[in-house]
Structures are given as C-alpha cells and as structure tokens.
Amino acid sequence: MTVDFSLLPEQAQEKIKDLGSADIVVGIASYNNARTINHVVMAVDAGLRKYFPKDRSVIINSDGGSSDGTPELVKNTTIDHRTVFLEHPIYPIHRISTPYHGIPGKGSAFRTIFQMAVLLGAKACCVVDADLRSITPEWIELLLVPVVKEGYDFVAPLYSRHKYDGSITNSIIYPVTRSLYGKRIRQPIGGEFGFSGKLAEFYLSQDVWESNVARYGIDIWMTTEAIAGGFKICQAYLGAKIHDPKDPGRDLRDMFVQVVGSLLTLTEKHYNKWKEIKGTEDIPTFGFKYFVGVEPINVNIEKMIGQFKLGVESLKDVWKDILDEGTIQALAEVSEQKIPDFHLDNRTWVKIIYDYILAFHHKKLSTEHLLKSLIPLYLGRTASFFLEVGDLNNEEAEGVIENLCMEYEKQKDYLVKGW
Fold it and tell me: I need a surface site. Which of 110, 264, 318, 404 has the fewest CB within 10 A?
C-alpha cells in the first residue's frame, strides 16, 4: 500500500528521510506521562540493545500534546549500557518524538506509529503503554521474538493482574471476544502488542480513523482484526502489569463507551465469521509463567451498588426496549439486596450483554445512549464480582472468570438466533 507521507508531521518526515529504513519499530503513545516515561524508554532501549543488537531499531514516541515535558524526557533519557551488557549494538537506536494528527486519542497516536513503521519498512513492531511501572527489557524480547523468529503476525500480552484490575476486560471484552471468535486471548485490550510489518500495513489500510478506534477502542480493534483477518496470533506472558489503575467507579464513562462501542461495531462487521464458530481453543503462549506479587487496588463497592440501584429506578423505560420483562424483574430483585448478599448472577449478566449486542444490531437506540444505559448494569455486575472474589486469591478469582466465560459460550446460540 501507499502511505501518504504528507500526513505525518514535518519533523517525522525529516527523520524518516534521514533513517531510510528500520528492522524494528517500538511505539510509545503518550499524554502527560512524565512520571513514568523515563522508566518505559529505558526499558525499551535496554531490551532492544540486549535482544536485538544487530537490527536497525527505532523508538517512536507518538505524543498527544503533553504539557508536562513528556516528549523532552523521551529525547533526553540516557542509560549506560556498557555497565550492563557485553554485546554492543551494531546500529544506534534512534528515537523520534512526534505529535500526531487526527481525533485526540490513543488510536490516532498508533496510526502515526503504523504509518512510520510502514514507511521505514519495519519487519516487526510493538507498542507499549507510557504509564507502565513494571515494564522490563524482557517485555521487548517477548513481544518481538514471536514475530521476528517464529513468523507470528500478532502477539497479545498475558499478565498477572490484581483480581480487581481490568474489570471491563473480565466481565465483557475477554469473554465476548473469546466466545465469538473461539480464541482464548486473555488480554484483548492489554495495551502492549507485538505485530508484523504486514499487519501494520493492514491496520493502516482500514477506514476507521474517524471512529472510536481512534480513541480508546484501538486495542480491541487491533486484536479482533488480527483474529478475523486470519493472521497468525499468539500471546506472551509478561509478568505483572503495574500501571496507573482506574477505579471502576470513576473515570469510566468515555472509556467504557468507546471500548464497548468498538466491540459492538466489530461484532457487527464480522458476523459472518463468528456465527459458525463453536467452542474455544487456547492459543500459543510464549514466556515462562511465574508467580508475581501484584499491587492491591482500592475500590468503592458501595458506590458502585448505589449507581446500579439508581439505574434500576430511573432506566426502566429505556431497558424495556432492550431487555425482556424477566431480566428487568431479576434486576429489580437484585437491587433490593444489601451488602454482602448483593449478587448479579452469570446467567442474567450474559443474557444482558447479548441483548445489548442485539439492540445495537437492530438499532434500538443510538450507540452512545445504548451504552450509557449499560454502565449502571456493568457497575452492579462489577460490584457483585468483587464481593464474590473478596476472599479469594488472584488465581481462584481467575476460576470465577472462567465460569463466566463458559456461560457466554453456552448462551452464544441465543445471540446467533436473535440476529
């Protein structure tokens, strides 16, 4: 494909002309990440020097207009590799920090990274979040080696996370993606991905850059398009993901609408691919899984339940066009429950999600209104899960999520028949 060179900032165009080509590109999308960006760049730099010393490597920081000096920190971060590694790289590792054009968001930042990777002719790429505190040089090896040496096109991350972390993933994104497409990719919106130059070119050719994909929807879009496009996929165990966590009861609305909205759009697009898929299967996993400690996350369960109950009181007229009478009655009964007995069961929850997917398909409401009416239900389900796993360790909590996934698989026929 032909990449419109003029779409890139002038500074990036000049850098590409100077470099000519690259074997490996590592992208870091950032926005006001001065507190963590230094550590991330050092880890990426060290990983490239240690594991890919003979490759031409470029680190691209695609920044969303940070006001805290993030791009300057990227350019000025240094590390004395001579005291750490015996083998020196044949080629210097270049760093480019550039603004991006388009809708503000992570997806637009990634588009710039894809453009530069294709223009540089990179054979392997990866992207990492700028707010990571647990990234090590080994992450770069694990994300890139399956592409460079094993011929994979897409490498999803596999983390150890606190049982309260990743609640949108655990209750909706992972089980829906797994059930629909039959692949057990545990972290489909993980944030760190490896991918081939061929897949970067495919991503760039898609007409999605004025949609929610340009914002928070980019991760689920990358994963789903890799599966649905028939690309060779795997995952890599990276250890603990420690970053700036978000309380599920706060800072949620826009992210929820964009991520779940992208999931619904992809479900619509790929219906002919997923409707015939039965059951699920594991995908190849690279890396040695070891025990790691994860940071605890504070959550306000009482607040989440309060927002759920408020939704039950105020959204009945909206829900009657989406959910059946039995489900609405079940939600009313759940809203009468008090802590610690509050519980929204798997069967009801899965039916709710599939009914919302069908409501999107049949255009019952505008996407934004539809998804905003789901948020109180999501908060109720999340509170229910937190109460259920409160006394369990993270591995035991994973078993609870597995049971939920099996319920999604069990009810998939309901979704197909309702289409």
Answer: 318
